[in-house]
Amino acid sequence: MQTIRLKRPPTAGSERARTGPGRDLSPLLAGAATAVGGCGALLALAGSDSPLRGPFTLFFLLAAPTTAIGAALRGLEPLGRAIGAIGGAIVLDMLVAQGMLAVHRWSVTGGIIAVTVISFCLLMGCVTVKPTKT
């Protein structure tokens, strides 16, 4: 025998769809973060003397690996996922810097390119591989 599951009507205390001016800010904030990070990477790679080069580049160096690692940790709760992704991004940046210093090949452009490539590979691995069911 097959059971039919019915959705219960929402109660007064449950979440409702938000209406109003601030309901869909997530895509806007994601787009702004992407633009700031992209500008930071481009300013650093171009060797610009802009005062925004440092903060925007630092934002890129933290946001790119955080996004990639956060995508890999999609099974965790949001707070644990955020803490793990931010910690992993800091570790990734430090390992890239330490590796480049160890082989005497340190450069700002090389570090940005290395972090970009590693983050891109992590993100593409998460997007193309389906998770296994346990």
Question: Gist?
Answer:
The protein is mostly helical.
If you had to describe this structure to a student in words, what would you say it looks like?
This protein starts with 25 loop residues before the first helix and ends in a 6-residue tail after the last helix. The protein is built from four helices and no strands. The longest helix has 25 residues. The chain is mainly alpha-helical and 134 residues long. Helices cover 65% and strands 0% of the residues.
Note poorly predicted spans.
Answer: none
Computed Rg: 20 Å
Shape: extended
Number of helices: 4
Helix content: 55-70%
Distance between the termini: 27 Å
Mean pLDDT across residues = 85
Encode the helix/strand succession as letters.
HHHH
- The count of strands amounts to 0
User: What fraction of the residues are assigned to beta strands by DSSP?
Assistant: under 5%
Largest sheet: none
**Helix vs. strand class:** mainly alpha
List the helices and strands and how they pair.
Blueprint: H1 26-46, H2 53-72, H3 78-102, H4 108-128
List descriptors.
mainly alpha, 65% helix
